[in-house]
Amino acid sequence: MKPILRSAVLLAVVFSLSLVAADGPFNGPVCSGVWKSIKSGHELVYLEGNRLLDWEPSSGHYRIWRYDRERSGKADPLPGGPVVEGTWKSIADGHQLVYMGGDRILDWEPETGSYRIFAYDRSIAGNRDPLTGIDVEGKWGSINAGHTLIYMGGDAVLDWVEETGHYRIWFYDREKKGADDPFPGKPIAEGTWKSIKAGHHLMQFDGDRVLDWEDSGRYRIWAYDMTQRGAEDPFPGKPLAEGEWPHAAPGVSFHYMDGDRILEWNSQTGAYQVWSFEQRLDEINAADNNAAIEDAAAVTAARAKAAENARELEKARREAIAQAQEDLKDELELERAQDELAAIKAKQQQEDAAVTRAREEAQRKYEIERAKREVAKARQEQFLAQQRAIALTRQGVVAFHNPLATSSQYISIVCRWKLWDGSYTRWAQGKIPDGKGWFYTCPGAVSFQVKFSSSAGGEKNYALEANQIPSDAKATFEDGRSYTFFFKERNWLDLFKGKPKK
Q1: Which stretches does DSSP call E strand in 286-393?
Q2: Angle formed at CA 167 by CA 20 and CA 277, multiple of 5 degrees
Q3: Which of 291, 278, 172, 282 is nearest to 226 (CA)?
Q4: How distant, in Å, are the alpha carbons of 302, 436, 437, 461, 485 from that of 498?
Q5: Spatial distance between the Cα atoms of 307 and 305, rounded to a whole number of angstroms
Q6: Cβ contacts of 273 within 8 Å, gap of 6 or more
Q7: For 429-485, what is each residue's pLDDT tens digit?
Q8: What SS3 state is found at 295?
Q9: DSSP letter for each residue of 207-237
Q10: If residue 402 lies in a helix (H) or strand (E), which one and from where to where?
Q11: How far is the C-alpha of 282 from the C-alpha of 289, rounded, in Å?
Q12: How would DSSP label each residue in 309-377?
């Protein structure tokens, strides 16, 4: 809020409450009486419009009454029976209820800091629960035992520690859902009051005023400046009004009932009074006005002018309050947007760092795998080189012999060697005459394949695992043992596997 606008608000408040009657800060009472069923053990919460919640923490029993602000004299402002009545199972001893405006009710447990904000359906009647759902739910760490929460209108909540006078004003974010904190971020304003602490009670009324009373009867009315920020006192300057009022007594509480009505209720006796706090401009400096203006017509004109000025100031004050609430929302929206942007940037930085780490880790794993492959390849090459070196120092030996003495019993062969690296030599053909033998050797060979047939017919394939012997050793037919193959019971082949000499 701009300084000029703020000054206009304070001027309006000061002008309207700069002097009050000696019998207290309010006019009336408008109506008074004694409630028989609303007294000790009960708590009252005004729910805006024409509804007043009356509940008993000890049992969880509740009633919601219709409030008739037109009642006067001895007429009960809560006529007829309750609009709705029932018993809550989860809202009882240890809980506090605060109406948050906009059909929302805060239920919180000071001892634990646990809270819930319920949606209130004012159209429900009979014995159905009017708290139809939970907007948000959670647990506060710094708002707990010893704290008092007071709804200040708009989207502001006063968090006050009576024992020390420490206070914080929170922004109430109505858009929060689920587990999101409805009082996000830092307090709007924070500080410690020296004269508003233990033994005092506070009640916000008329948008920008606060009644501060003690059980001794002492009261003060403060101007509430909702534009204050940081360490600035939201109750700036001196009280607008103060004095002694016997109605502020032990067991008495005051409840703002909208418009110009304030309910005074004695929980010990059930006695109640409804007061009015209309602007009492005709009493402001009345003596000075009467001395300066002698005729009644002039006095009437002066009072009419004062009333007109008061209406204009009240209009300006109301507009200023509305503008201040909008400014507050704008400031908090900006702060929340900045916080969200900072959170997004921080998250992006974290994600970028995570991506960088993931890339570095992937690159490291790739380098490790590549090194492993290179090591494996080198080891394989080393192994093959060793095998080749060993294989080339040795030779495969195979001997064939045709034991038949008939010239017609020769055998034909086609053979090849398998080398150490898995390759093969070319196929070689030959004949072994009767009674003759062939002796085959090949450096570096590890096995032998042969295909043979006899002149009498028949064919046989055979793959032989040939022994290897040192290349300087001599092998003869006697070094092998015979493998005999028969062809149609007439022809056979003795295949010798060469062995090294000892």
Answers
A1: none
A2: 20
A3: 172
A4: 142, 17, 13, 19, 17
A5: 5
A6: 28, 29, 31, 32, 247, 263, 264
A7: 888 777 777 777 777 777 777 776 655 555 554 444 444 444 444 444 444 444 444
A8: coil
A9: TTEEEEEETTSEEEEEE--TT--BTS-SS-S
A10: none
A11: 10
A12: HHHHHHHHHHHHHHHHHHHHHHHHHHHHHHHHHHHHHHHHHHHHHHHHHHHHHHHHHHHHHHHHHHHHH
- Say if CB 453 and CB 412 are below 8 A apart: yes
How far from the centroid of its chain's Cα atoms is residue 193's Cα?
Answer: 34
205-306-213 Cα angle (round to 5) = 25
Number of continuous H segments (helices) and E segments (strands) in the chain: 3, 29
Residue 20 in tokens: 């009050």
- Range of lowest pLDDT (146-160, 290-304, 404-418, 458-472): 458-472
The position carrying tokens 């101007």 is 223
Q: Which tokens is 191 given?
A: 């500080």
Extract the tokens encoding 104.
Answer: 């929302």
- Which residues, in sequence order, are CB contacts of 58 under 8 Å at separation 6+? 41, 92, 93
Preceding omega of 29 cis (within 30 degrees of 0) = yes
Residues 152, 169 contacting (CB under 8 angstroms): yes
